[in-house]
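> example.struct
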């Protein structure tokens, strides 16, 4: 275990020059982020993938949405104290729909264009997953380069293996092959038509799957054994280590 920036974590391997550097972002305050087991799981999962190194970020404790800008110290990653421009991808972990707005604010704080069509190779790839996203990704469809639709255990490795093993001048070049991975939704390859406030047509480009299927972890899989890997005194559950007993509501309620 190591302690950096007051956060205890599983020690990450020495940096490799060819690694994909991912900043995992929970779009709410740090005390809430560290109390979210899904966020914790994805952090651990990404750091177990060969060729990937993951740090995490969340908003300062006490943050409110009327804050117009953050001070420089509040814009560094929590473990390595890195600025955003050193990462290849930002991956939002979103469990609740109100945090969609917070994700947009974080992009604004980091001076990243909100609409993906306005971004260039100078910007990191912007990704999103989490329980809110795989139920309804569309509110962020114009902002996100690729969504993970379903549980991360079956999605992260094929996507980031493609990322780490591909050669490209702009990371967006890998979005077309990524769109062929089951559970990866790349909005730029889908087109909608609306009449007033109602969508009347949803069409995929050629060679892109018409319907993205949500991915699940098989019942009984050892991947379902999830526990805390990040600990901090500011966490809502600062004196506890979280462990997954069951995933989702057994009654399938919403």
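> example.seq
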């Amino acid at each position: 275990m190591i302690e950096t920036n007051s956060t205890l974590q599983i020690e990450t391997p020495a940096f490799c020059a060819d690694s994909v550097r991912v900043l995992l972002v929970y779009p709410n305050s740090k005390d809430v982020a560290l109390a979210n087991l899904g966020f914790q799981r994805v952090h651990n999962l990404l750091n177990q993938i060969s060729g990937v190194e993951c740090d995490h970020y969340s908003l300062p404790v006490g943050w409110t949405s009327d804050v117009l800008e953050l001070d420089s110290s509040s814009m560094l990653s929590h473990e390595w104290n890195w600025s955003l421009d050193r990462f290849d991808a930002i991956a939002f972990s979103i469990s609740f729909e109100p945090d969609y707005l917070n994700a947009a604010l974080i992009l604004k704080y980091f001076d990243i264009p909100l609409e993906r069509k306005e971004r260039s190779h100078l910007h990191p790839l912007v990704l999103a997953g989490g329980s809110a996203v795989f139920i309804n990704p569309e509110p962020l469809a114009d902002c996100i380069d690729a969504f993970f639709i379903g549980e991360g255990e079956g999605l992260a490795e094929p996507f980031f293996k493609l990322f780490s093993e591909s050669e490209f001048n702009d990371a967006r070049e890998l979005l077309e092959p990524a769109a062929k991975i089951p559970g990866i939704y790349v909005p730029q390859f889908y087109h909608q038509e609306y009449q007033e406030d109602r969508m009347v047509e949803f069409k995929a480009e050629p060679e892109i799957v018409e319907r993205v299927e949500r991915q699940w972890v098989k019942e009984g899989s050892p991947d379902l054994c999830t526990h805390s890997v990040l600990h901090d005194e500011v966490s809502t559950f600062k004196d506890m280590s979280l462990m997954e007993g069951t995933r989702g509501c057994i009654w399938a309620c919403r």
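> remarks
The chain has one domain: 2-224.
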